[in-house]
Design brief:
By secondary structure, this protein is α/β, with parallel strands linked by helices. 20% of the residues lie in helices and 25% in strands. It is built from 16 helices and 29 strands. The strands form 7 sheets. The protein has an 8-stranded parallel beta sheet with strand order 19-18-15-14-13-10-21-20. Strands 2, 3, 6, 7, 8 and 9 form a 6-stranded antiparallel beta sheet that branches. A hairpin with a 2-residue loop joins strand 2 and strand 3. Helix 10 packs antiparallel against helix 11. The longest helix is centred in the middle third of the chain and has 15 residues. The two termini are 28 Å apart.
Length: 623
């Protein structure tokens, strides 16, 4: 790890540095910075913020030093709904006076762009259940068939499959395979989720469609009869709530299916209101669609009638499923980064704000997550979202760090063959660079996933033992731990479609990569730990094969070492630890214990890999 990073000040927007995480315009925030003694003590520190777009400086006052760190605190007025700020440090030594900036990307001796500033949004904080969620994603057709399931006539597009039949990863058959999982099947297996520590069930679309994935809805008015219909959804939500599990749905606000009742009416009658719901050419023979797929026509949010029916008010599609008798607890919005954007039209943030406004109107405190498969920074500048289902800042670099040689999987839609491998420095640098644009609250509300229904499975692309380490980091780094059904059984898949394998209930006990015990232990650890849910993050050491970090909170701290290979005599300076190593207790997660020895003002770590080692220390002492 380079000396520049070790000698850097620290601030990440977490509650240890900014107590008020949900300010309103006009509030005065006390914002803190700390600097390790090895960097020297700054002569002065200023906090630079923007007021109506103009830079403003507030001088920080010194606070008592603690454990070799100098602390600084500045009062800043929240002048606008989004507060952007960074620090300016004045330092003096025998060579004279120098100035440096510190922002969300780190320290810099030269000026930096405003886009890299720390950010805080004025919006009510998520409710406790949403802040502390462990999410479990279910693809309904592949989870479980209910015991009382009645025979259903399959529509013409569907092909019936036996539960053990292989999934076709690509081709004409892929979207047509139907395995018969239903919502009552999920209800009957909710105790499995409880055992894993799950607190939020996320369902991929349940509306009628002409595919097994159902992202091509034919209506938003009813639950697909293949899944059990409306009553089955009511039973599922009621049973989940009885177990303190919230349920969120998946809504395609970017497009419908070409068999949707709105689209059919639009094609039949160019003068209809529905014709304005889509982007048609002059003679209605051609239309805009998702990624050029004709079966997924794109919605035109310039239509007031579309807004009224879909997202505005208590009678809208958005509201209907949040209200009795269904009582969903929120939405994940499919391809939210594309919603409301077409050529020279961009009303993305306005549509997101309308969705949030309706949710806040009918049932405040619900969860709203945006799917943004790439860099989610720009989308999360909208204050509508709690967080994003995104891959860039965690899943993608994690895959690259643990990638096996010649992994036969596509790398998130790129033309790159296989998975381009990186080392520990690359993993941390990518994670930090693509987290820098998030507010702390957005960072902790992003869905952190090992893989999802749209990707290959981690077990297919990672070295042996990698998925277990990755799963641990899902729970130990900031974010909402997100499991895709089957992760706990080590399922495989070369792409998203291949990953939608039916759950192996009959052979569950014989799975060689069973992660159920690890997931349950991590869920319990996180549920009882304010440090893992909201504590600050500091990186202590980085090598090609090992990364060491601290999670710090006033109640407790953790030192975490994640490794992809064996390591011997990795050193961490003692003055960077979050407390005395003599007070550290190792947390048992199932890997062979690592050894931590003290020598020459350093902690020396040795251990086996792939593995994750966790030590608990007393809480962070604050000035």
């Amino acid at each position: 790890m380079d000396d520049a990073r070790l000698c850097s000040p620290h601030h990440d927007g977490s509650p240890q540095y900014v107590r008020n995480q949900a300010p309103v315009v006009g509030d005065v925030l006390a914002v803190r910075l700390r600097v390790p003694a090895r960097c020297g003590t700054p002569r002065r520190v200023f906090l630079r913020s923007l007021r109506d777009g103009e830079p403003h400086y507030d001088q920080a006052r010194t606070l008592p030093s603690v454990d070799g760190w100098s602390w600084w605190e500045a009062d800043v007025t929240v002048a606008n709904p989004t507060l952007r700020y960074r620090f300016l440090l004045e330092e003096a030594d025998a060579r004279g006076t120098s100035w440096s900036w510190f922002n969300a990307t780190g320290a810099s001796p030269w000026d930096t762009p405003d886009r890299d500033d720390f950010v805080i949004h004025c919006r009510a904080a998520p409710t406790e259940w949403a802040r502390n969620a462990v999410i479990y994603q279910v693809f309904p057709d592949r989870f479980a068939r209910s015991q009382q399931r009645q025979p259903v006539d399959l529509p013409g597009w569907a092909i019936a499959c036996g539960w053990e039949d292989p999934v076709e990863p690509r081709g004409e058959l892929t979207p047509r395979q139907v395995y018969g999982g239903d919502l009552d099947g999920i209800t009957e297996n909710l105790d499995h989720l409880v055992d894993l520590g799950v607190t939020v069930l996320y369902l991929t679309p349940f509306f009628p469609a002409r595919s097994n994935h159902r992202y091509d809805a034919t209506t938003f008015d009813v639950v697909d009869p293949l899944l059990g219909g409306d009553d089955a959804l009511v039973r599922l939500v009621e049973s989940a709530h009885a177990r303190n599990i919230a349920v969120i749905g998946d809504l395609t606000a970017n497009h419908t299916g070409d068999a949707h009742e709105w689209f059919r009416k639009a094609r039949a009658d160019p003068t209809s209101a529905e014709a304005g719901f889509y982007y048609f050419d002059k003679d209605t023979t051609d239309y805009a669609c998702w990624f050029g797929v004709p079966s997924l026509p794109k919605l035109n949010w310039a239509s007031p009638e579309l807004r009224r029916r879909f997202i505005e008010g208590a009678d809208s599609v958005v509201a209907k499923w949040l209200l009795p008798p269904f009582n969903l607890d929120g939405w994940r919005i499919d391809v939210a980064n594309m919603m409301g954007r077409n050529s020279d039209v961009d009303v993305n943030h306005q549509v997101a704000a309308l969705i949030r406004a309706t949710m806040d109107e009918v049932r405040p405190g619900l969860m709203l997550l945006a799917e943004c498969t790439g860099d989610a920074t720009e989308n999360l500048t909208s204050q509508a979202w709690d967080g994003a289902m995104t891959y860039s800042n965690f899943t993608r670099p994690l895959w690259q760090w643990f990638a096996r040689e010649n992994a036969a999987a596509n790398f998130f839609g790129t033309p790159i063959p296989g998975i381009p491998r990186i080392d520990g420095q690359g993993f941390v640098a990518t994670h930090l660079a693509l987290s820098a644009g998030f507010s702390w609250r957005a960072r902790t509300q992003n869905m952190s996933a090992l893989n999802t229904h749209d990707t290959a499975r981690a077990g297919t692309v990672m070295i042996e033992g990698g998925p277990a380490v990755g799963m641990a980091l899902v729970f130990l780094l900031p974010g909402l731990p997100t499991l895709f059904a089957g992760d706990e059984f080590g399922l495989r898949g070369i792409n998203g479609e291949d990953s939608r394998t039916p759950m192996p209930w009959q052979a569950a006990a014989d799975r060689p990569d069973d992660l159920r015990a690890l997931i349950a232990a991590l869920s319990t650890l996180r549920a009882g730990s304010p440090a893992l849910r909201e504590g600050t993050v500091r990186w202590l050491a980085i090598t090609p094969d090992v990364v060491v970090l601290a999670r710090e909170h006033e109640d407790e701290c953790f030192v975490i070492a994640a490794a992809r290979a064996d390591y011997d005599r990795l050193t961490v300076p003692l003055d960077l630890l979050p407390g005395s190593w003599a007070d550290a207790d190792q947390v048992v997660l199932g890997w062979p214990d690592a050894i931590g020895e003290l020598a020459d003002e350093t902690l020396v770590l040795s251990g086996r890999g792939p593995s994750v080692q966790v030590w608990r220390l007393p809480g962070l002492v604050m000035p």
